[in-house]
Design a protein that fits this description.
The complex is a heterodimer of chains A (249) and B (659).
Chain A lengths: L10 E2 L2 H7 L10 E2 L8 H7 L4 E4 L6 H4 L5 E4 L8 H15 L3 H23 L6 E6 L4 E5 L4 H9 L14 E5 H6 L4 E5 L4 H9 L1 H5 L1 H4 L3 E4 L8 H17 L1
Parallel strand pairs in A: 1-2, 3-4, 5-8, 8-9
Antiparallel strand pairs in A: 5-6, 6-7
Chain B lengths: L1 H7 L1 H24 L2 H6 L8 H35 L11 H15 L1 H28 L5 H25 L5 H7 L9 H19 L1 H6 L4 H6 L4 H23 L5 H11 L5 H27 L5 H17 L24 H17 E3 L5 E3 L4 H33 L6 H4 L1 H15 L5 H24 L5 H24 L5 H8 L8 H17 L4 H6 L4 H6 L4 H23 L4 H12 L5 H25 L8 H19 L5
Antiparallel strand pairs in B: 1-2
Helix pairs in contact in B: 1-2, 2-14, 4-9, 4-12, 4-13, 4-14, 5-6, 5-7, 6-7, 6-12, 6-29, 7-29, 9-12, 13-14, 13-15, 14-15, 15-21, 16-17, 16-28, 17-23, 17-26, 17-27, 17-28, 19-20, 19-21, 20-26, 23-26, 27-28, 27-29, 28-29
Classes of the chains: A alpha/beta (249), B mainly alpha (659).
Chain lengths: 249, 659
Amino acid sequence: MLLSLGITPRAVADIAGYRVWAVSPPLPESVLDLGSRGEPSMERIATIKPDLIVTASGYGLDANRLQRFAPVETLKLYEGSATALSDTAREFVRLAAHLGRRPQAEERIAKLSTDLAAMRAELATRKLPRVAVVSLFDDRHARVYGRNGLFQDVLDQLGVENAWTGATSAWGFATVSFEKLVTLGDCIIVSLQPVPANVKIRIQQSRLWAALPAVRRQQVINIPAVWPFGGIAAADRFAGFLRGSLLRL
Amino acid sequence: MSSLVAIREPFRLTILLLGAVAGALTLRDALGMLPAEDWFALLWKEPVTPTELLARFAFAPQIAMALLSGAALALCGVLLQQAMRNPLAEPTTLGTSAGSALALTAATIFAPSWLEHGRELIALGGGALATAAVMLIAARGRYSASAIILGGVVVAMTAGAATGMLLALFTDYLAEIFVWQSGSLVQNGDSVALALAARLAVTTLLILVFLRPLGLLSLPDSSMASLGVRPWLVRLMTVLLGVALAASVAAAVGVIAFVGLAAPAFARLTGARTFGRLLMHSTLLGALGLLLVDRLSAALFDGFLPIGAMTAVIGAPVLIMLIRALPPDRPDQTVGWVSGRDASRLNLPLLALIFILAVGASLAIGRSQHGGLSVTPVELHYLIEFRGARVLASAAAGALLAIAGGILQRMTSNPLAAPEALGVSGGAIMAVLLVIVSTQAVDPVLLSIGAAAGALAVSAALGAALVRGRARPERTLLGGLAVTMMATGWASVFLASGDPRTIWAMSWLSGSTYRVTEEQALFSAGATVLALAIVPLLRRPMTLLPLGIETAAGLGMRVPRAWSVSFLVAASCTAVATMVVGPLSFIGLSAPHVARLLGFRHATQQLWAAASVGATIMVLADWLGRITIYPWEIPAGIIAAVVGGLHLGLLLCKGRRSV
């Protein structure tokens, strides 16, 4: 979020993870690692003397303990409201206002809205099948994204129907076996990268995977990594990849 | 008439009921997919439609897998329990599953290409290596029952902690391992089921060939020897057979706890008296039982719950209810697992000095901004804040758990007794998970209250059972183990669910001191001082109870009262430690052993020494965890378990044993 506002943070947690799973916007090399997202190093925070600490709810971080180093902004995201996109937009604006960059944030959100609307119009000219967005992490199970999640909101905005209408966690996904994907029937499968190499190989050997309608018709779309619990930038990134792939079908 | 049969043959009734329910559910699910004639058609024709494919490559192999895994695990449980004369023996207590998990985890991270060629081989290799380590430790005790099981627990705990360390460092990449750890019968072809069937067939054949010597294992070693059978050889062989089975199942479907424990328990309860009967009945019960659990999971939760978690969650309460009805068992109390060395080269003040040095190093030395080690790199006023609370809490938790473990081991004369086995940690885990799933965020105050409430609830249940005078320590341990397994099951479900808060849950489960506050640290330190002061008051029961119930009672000890008091102290110690630094339980197992092996044999001395050892290990673990991969951290509990486990294993290997 800070990067989207044109601010380079002094340090963030889990830089390696960010570069693999979120990718964009890119983190400059100057940014220091704080350690894990659940347990950022207090000692490092103390030594870099930050002006502001931004955290998100859900990682079990105690704002009171961070408070003594700098003011703390806790972003309230994924609290089961089923409005991930508007939540993240609201928190984005709140954070930007705090930093005196509210216009930039509002501009960024307005741009996302117009982009999504334009993509929606573009996609409306096609007759699109339903879409299932999944992360494959072994040869028997997949993580499928739905209600409560950022991707669901983006799909809604794009006028694309999510094939997965089943229950999901507060963070907007469910872990299901491949059988569940078979029962989804006709749909396009959008597979988030990266998929570990060994999993890829074993999935290709799976009789069930091969039997999926989308696989038989070669309608499996691989899109680069997008952080499923991200903010405006992640929503934008996801929409862009999805649009490109759907139009190429 | 039929009720008469049922009373005389409870096994038949049980198996009939189990078979009928499991069969009906299976049939219902099968016919829900395809009509009967299509199922028959699948016998000779290739599946075409998606439903046919599902039936042929998912449903049928899954049913087969449930039956095969259930049978194999039950068989494995019988073999291990027979070899160790201990109803607590289970595939997981030998370290096989933990070894397989470590091998798979390491392969996933460092050599993913190996996995494509056969993760079964990797899992088997890991399981076999772990077992070899167990045997190495047990060799000193000539493979006696308790030597093997103690080695098994030490190896399981060390390997488990090493896996935890890898998982803590590479969380995002290991969703696959999470699913594997909580067991899943889901199949996408039939090659895995066929492979397991072949292995089960070979094992069964071997068992049939060696049925007689296997059956003799329940006799005392001397009687076996007089019948011309070498006890250690038969025991070794039996354990190896069990391990091979366990590794096959683990490689195929993941860790499915509890079946190996429950099936033989049910079989004994329903009247299996001879070894042959026990084998047959357990196998049937295990196979049908696991099928029933699998189908129930499909019916109730739409298959979301991993099977390993289901077995733990369903089976544990049933086991707790059954424990009272178990036929009396005689745990092997005569074997010397105590060091023969009496005079100690280290005395208590020296241990205290080592502890103080550890605290000093841990407080003063940290990582500088440029990566090197430096003395007090942060400003002094932060020192107490960052490190003081954590060091104090680590020390307190280590000492409390060590005292709890020492008390438990003495009162039950069971080398496996530990706070984890008491179920108190399990109660805390369950309460905390309940708090997590019923709220969206992670609220430290609520969680602490939850942990305390869970721990105290289990302690109260234990206390109530003791006051009634019905629960003997072995039974209570079995019950506690069931509670812990159930808690681990729920924890696996939560970890497998992929909720982003797994980061938090894992750090808590692995004993991170990251979130300790000053108030918590002071509170636990106070509790530790109190516990250290209470220890001398327990001298009499702690000295007499290890001699056995009859002896203790004969010497004028009021045994039930002694139990109640000892349990209360142990449970309170565990509850406080758990509330502060999560369910660390390995210290409770290893610290008293280390103290014993160092030569502290008198009750008070040993418990104090154990507390000092436990506190030192935890403080060093917390320190190493903070500085090795700064700014990342390794949870102190994981380091303590790896270090403590390795050390304990080494001591056991070298220690002169007094058999």
